[in-house]
Design a protein that fits this description.
The structure is a homodimer.
Chain A: E1 2-3, H1 7-10, H2 13-16, H3 26-33, H4 37-44, H5 54-67, H6 73-80, E2 85-90, H7 98-111, E3 115-120, H8 125-137, E4 142-145, H9 153-160, E5 165-168, E6 178-182, H10 184-198, E7 203-207, H11 213-228, E8 236-238, H12 244-256, E9 262-265, H13 268-280, E10 290-292, E11 309-311, H14 314-329, E12 338-341, E13 344-346
Parallel strand pairs in A: 2-3, 2-4, 4-5, 5-6, 6-12, 7-8, 7-9, 9-10
Antiparallel strand pairs in A: 11-13
Helix pairs in contact in A: 3-4, 3-5, 4-5, 7-14, 10-11, 12-13
The structure holds a DNA duplex (16 and 16 nucleotides).
Chain lengths: ~350, ~350
DNA sequence: TTGTACGCGTTATCAA
DNA sequence: TTGATAACGCGTACAA
């Protein structure tokens, strides 16, 4: 429903006001300070300030602040071909994993004067590619990418071309780019240890998509951990996406065979899908089947039952990725690094000893 | 822990590659097509295309795509003083209410070629103000604001100056700006009706902060609805923020007096805080106290107990706000409008008849 | 229908 | 230490 405003509100005073007075330009400042625009530019610019006599610097700065001068980043960008802007590519902002990461990125970059451009790709390579190009056209100084697939020619090529870039959470196969991620392998190992410690021996894995690193790494870690305990490592189904629906489908497939006593889900959304599947089959968690998630999404501990999960420091992931990119942009660091942040198993009500 | 890459990965091939070939410019296209840059510009520009001979248009466009030409938005912005960019101000991206809204905004604006700049203000007027200024400096064409307080001089002044702007979810007192929000008053009325229908008569309200419209509007709606049922409307506590912690504090205060049989929370986060408070006092929801939230955040129906809440179409809120802004930017609409999207009470397990 | 000429606001280079 | 000049890439009056 669209409501027109009541009469007393309609006043479109905006239209009748004088147009906003144009922002003062560098010329204005220079003129007012009695110097040449080039000098004003040097005085106002951190890096070139030392070239100007202190008294002049002082005068220019005073005039500038008196006039309320702010540089025009557009004009500056045109000249310098940098933009103090960073592009962030994520699969989907409504996946609860990403908001804390993006928030961390924005906080860290914002503190250094950078602005953030975000785009959602929905895991569609075409959208990834077009968004990437659009951001490059806007002269972004670098990228933080959370959408990488293991085989991702776009990322690889960009890296080869020297585009400043950091991957967060997910990575490509060719490690020619810096990465910040949670320590997935350790997380999965702790998870399996926990379940085995409870007495489980028939443990299945609902893996995430294997074309992204998190899916592949966690699957490999699951197999390794199971082997380490001398248990069968082949109880695996692969979900088509990191979504509740895909988790449900994969879990139903699993439950159609022999029902395991525990399920290690590739992430929390898949775990919720497992909840759904269990419920449909009339099974109770954790009485019939224990379930463990991954990521420890916000509020995941308040579900019914509270989900045991691996806490990944999402906000810090974003902050660290931003830091790596800033290092790269400032030219301090140039060789790619891999930063794995520690994770922690958070045991809650979705795991219990197997029955009888 | 920071891991250096194994030797086989270190190859900084990026540094050794030839520098990325410079993007072709409008001149390059013009030269290659044998026309003047001005003609190329006109041929490539939707609005001026009709001024140039169709055959020439064709030739220029072919050359452009052959060279992989893309306009330089920076240069264009400098010339046109528009940027095809919109600023979005939100309190906090990690509040689950906002990701769907932002996603809706990005989808709708992206479809029209606009790019989105977001900033988190944490409800701090100073941050709101500095982010607003920074975005204006970057020549954003307009704003979508989810941070408005009822008395918000910054917003008011910007509106008076004719800055294109749309408020989403929250609004200011002086309605000189377009607004897109959920129909809060109806939502609260339905909530109270529902509780009264279950037999509740002692109903309290944990209100959100009264300096933002949602807090004030929902409180007023609560009072009106209670009066409509001939019930006391003064069982109200006000939370300091829309957060779980503030909800807990406010609810504890409430429970220190006579315990009501039902609580209408100002939003879902406050409702979760009420869950906490109840638990601390050894009370059970819904057996001892029914609780209703507002917004129907993602996964809120999977809590323990599943929260009865008012579903607000968050994604659509974002889409509609973007549309209003696009209308304004295109000059089609200039008078502010208020769009209230319909909401819906979703009854779940947190509400039940009061005990015998 | 196309070309000419200029300027958007800034910074880099060169000269003084 | 400062000034003059040009250029970043584009769009647009104006002229032809």
């Amino acid at each position: 429903m669209t409501a027109r405003l009541p009469a007393r509100f309609t006043a479109p005073r905006a239209a009748t006001l004088p147009p906003v007075s144009p922002r003062p330009t560098l010329r204005d400042v220079a003129t007012a300070a009695g110097v040449h625009p080039a000098t004003a530019s040097r005085a106002l610019n951190e890096a070139t300030r030392s070239l100007v006599r202190p008294a002049t610097v002082e005068r220019v700065r005073e005039v500038a602040s008196a006039l309320g001068y702010q540089v025009n980043p557009i004009a500056r960008s045109l000249k310098t071909s940098r933009s103090e802007t960073v592009g962030v590519l994520i699969p989907d902002l409504t996946n609860p994993l990403f908001p804390p990461i993006v928030r961390g990125i924005e906080d860290a970059l914002g503190a250094s004067g950078y602005t953030v451009l975000t785009a959602n790709t929905d895991n569609d390579p075409a959208r990834e590619s077009s968004n990437f190009a659009a951001m490059q056209a806007r002269q972004v100084d670098g990228f933080i990418v959370a959408t990488a697939r293991l085989d991702d020619p776009l990322m690889h090529e960009a890296a080869l071309r020297g585009v400043p870039m950091v991957m967060v959470n997910r990575q490509t196969e060719q490690l020619d780019v810096s990465v910040v991620a949670g320590d997935d392998a350790t997380g999965i190992a702790r998870t399996v240890d926990h379940l085995v410690g409870l007495g489980h021996r028939d443990i299945a894995h609902v893996a995430g998509p294997l074309d992204v690193s998190t899916g592949a790494v966690r699957l490999r870690a699951f197999r390794t951990a199971m082997q380490g305990h001398g248990l069968p490592d082949d109880r695996v189904v692969v979900a088509e996406a990191y979504s509740e629906a895909a988790g449900r489908t994969a879990s139903l497939e699993l439950l159609d065979g022999a029902v395991p006593t525990a399920v290690v889900a590739g992430n929390d959304l898949l775990a919720i899908g497992s909840y759904d599947a269990l419920e449909e089959r009339g099974l109770i968690c954790p009485d019939d089947v224990s379930i463990v998630g991954f990521n420890d999404m916000p509020f995941i501990g308040r579900l019914r039952p509270p989900l045991t999960s691996v806490r990944v420091p999402q906000y810090e992931l974003g902050v660290e990725a931003a830091r790596l990119l800033l290092d790269r942009l400032s030219g301090r660091t140039v060789t790619p690094r891999v930063v794995l942040l520690p994770v922690q198993l958070v045991v809650r009500g979705s795991t219990a000893p197997p029955r009888g």
